[in-house]
Amino acid sequence: MKQGERFDPTTLEIYRALYTSVAEEMGLTLRRTAHSPNIKERRDYSCAVFDHEGRVIAQGDHMPVHLGSMPMAVAAALRETTLGPGDVVVLNDPFAGGTHLPDVTLVAGVFDATGGRGDGETGRRKQNSPRHPVTPSPRPLFFVANRAHHADIGGATPGSMGMATDVYGEGLRIPPVKLVVGGRVNEDLMRLLLANVRVERERRADFEAQIGSLKTGAARLLEIVGRAGGEEAAEYARHLIEYSARMMRATLRAVPDGVYEAEDALDSDGVSEGEVTLRVRVEVRGERAVVDFTGSAPQVSGPVNAVEAITVSAVAYVFRCLVGAEEVPASAGLTEPFEVIAPAGTVVNATHPAPVAGGNVETSQRIVDVLFKALAQALPERVPAASQGSMNNLTVGGTDPRTGREFAYYETVAGGMGARPRVDGVSGVHTHMTNSLNTPAEALEYAYPLRVRAYRLRRGSGGRGQQRGGDGVLREIETLVPARMSLLADRRARAPYGLDGGEDGRPGRDTLVRGGRTLKLDAKGSRDLKPGDRVRIETPGGGGHGEA
C-alpha cells in the first residue's frame, strides 16, 4: 500500500485485531511465567505495542492506570537511551515517565533482518520458509513494552507502599537504563537492583518474565511483517492511530459545547489533617476538549501526589469510556483531540522529590471521579455515579518461617461500582483505573504465612436510588507471624457520590482485630502486627443514581 492511499476497512480491522492480540499474548506470557502472586494471580501488569516513532498502536485489556501512562515511559526510554537489537531498557522513575516505584516498565525495539524494509516479496517468501534470525537493522520497526507491579521495590516498609514523605523513602528509583544489552542481561545492574529489594529471588523471576514477554511480542510482530511486509504493517499502524483520533473527535462532537466544572477531594494525605482538593474545568468546543486542573491542591507531604503521566492516563481513560465502541483501537489517536492542563507542583502534577506511591492508586481514582462529575452535567444520561474511588492497598511483610526468607504480600481490594443511569452498579469489583483480580485464598495462603478469615460482600453499602450502587466487600487477613503492615486507602470520610438524586455509597472502614478487641486503623499508615492479628478492610459502596 502506498502512503496516502485510502485504507481498506476490513484490512484495518484485521490489523487492529492482530496488534491487539500481540499485546494480549505478551500479557499471557508474562502472567504464566511470573512467580509473584501479584502478577500471576492478580494480573497487575500491562502490555502494549508501539510504532517506530514510539506512538502506541495497541494495548492489551489490562490496567487502565498503566496503559494511559506507558507512552510517557516509552518516550523517556527513547529520549535517554539508544535501543539496539537485543536491548531492553528498564525504568520506574515517576519523574521520567513512570507512575509509582513498584510499577517497573521494560521497553525493547523490534528489529528485522530486512533492515526495516519488509517489502512484499520478502514477506511472501517468509510465509513458506523458516524465519531468518534477527540481525541488526538501521532502526526498529516497532517497540514493545510492559509494566508490572512488583510486590516490593525497596523502601522503608515491605511492599513499598508506606507513608514516606519523599520519593527516596518509597523504594529504589530507576531512571531509563539498559537491563539487557545485545540479548544478555546486565548482571551488574541486576545485582544492584536485587540488593535493594525484598524477596530478591521473586523479583528476579518477575524481571525475567517481563523480558520473556517482550520477546513474545517481538516474535509475533515479526511474523506480521513476514506475512504482509513492513511497509503495509507500518501503514496500517498509522491508519489505526488516525482512525482512533476520528472516533474521539466524533465523540466530542456529540458532547454539547460548553464549560463543565466539578470538585472532589481525597480524605487526607495521611500526614496532615484536612482534605486534598481536586478541581477540574472541562471546556468542549466542537471536536476539541481542554481539561484543566488549575485550582487543585498543591502537592502534599503524604504519598498521594500524582505525576503528570497519571493524570493524563486518567483523563484518557474517561474519554475512552465515552467513545462507547467496544472495539475502538486503543492507540495514540485517542488522546489527540484533547489537551490536559495540570499545573506543575500540584497534587495532579507533582515535582521531585514528592512521594507518589498513592498517586497511582488513589489520586488516579479521584481524578476519574471529579472528571465524570463534571461531564455528568453534559451527559446525564450516560455518566455513572461514583464508584468506590479507592484501591484499598494492603501490604504485609515479614519473614516466612517455612522458608526462612522474607515475604512481601500486596493486594488491592474490590468495592462497589457506581450505579448507571439505567442499570444498578456491580458489587465487589475493581473499577476505573484498576482492572486486577483478587488473590485467591488458596494461592495467598500457599505463598505467604497468612490466612483469609473472611471474604464477603458488604451488604447495603451501595447507595440507594432508582438504580442502586454496587456493594463493597469485607476482607479479613490474619498474619501467622510477626509482620509489618501498611494500608493506603481513601473514601473513608467523604463518601462516593450519588447522581441525579441517588444517595451516596457508604464510606469504607478499616480495623485491627487483636485478642478479641477491635481497634480502628487509619486508612493511611503502617503498623506492626503480632501473630494472630487480623486486618479487616471494609470497602466503600458505589453511589446510587436517580431518586428511589
Describe the structure concisely for a colleague.
The chain contains eleven helices and 20 strands. It is α+β, with helices and mostly antiparallel strands and 548 residues long.
Account of the 3D structure:
- With 548 residues, this protein is of the alpha+beta class.
- The chain has two domains: 9-246, no CATH class; 384-548, no CATH class.
- The chain has helices spanning 9-33, 37-40, 64-67, 70-80, 120-127, 187-194, 200-228, 230-253, 308-323, 359-375, 441-447, and strands spanning 45-51, 56-59, 88-91, 103-110, 142-149, 177-181, 184-185, 258-266, 276-285, 288-292, 338-341, 393-400, 405-411, 450-458, 472-479, 483-488, 509-514, 517-520, 524-529, 534-538.
- The strands form four sheets. The chain has a seven-stranded antiparallel β-sheet with strand order 2-1-5-4-3-6-7, sandwiched between helices. The chain has a five-stranded antiparallel β-sheet with strand order 14-15-20-17-18, with helices on one face.
- α5 (120-127) crosses α7 (200-228), α7 packs across α8 and α9 (308-323) packs across α10 (359-375).
List the helices and strands and how they pair.
Layout lengths: L8 H25 L3 H4 L4 E7 L4 E4 L4 H4 L2 H11 L7 E4 L11 E8 L9 H8 L14 E8 L27 E5 L2 E2 L1 H8 L5 H29 L1 H24 L4 E9 L9 E10 L2 E5 L15 H16 L14 E4 L17 H17 L17 E8 L4 E7 L29 H7 L2 E9 L13 E8 L3 E6 L20 E6 L2 E4 L3 E6 L4 E5 L10
Parallel strand pairs: 10-11
Antiparallel strand pairs: 1-2, 1-5, 3-4, 3-6, 4-5, 6-7, 8-9, 9-10, 12-13, 12-16, 14-15, 15-20, 16-19, 17-18, 17-20
Helix pairs in contact: 1-7, 1-8, 5-7, 7-8, 8-9, 9-10
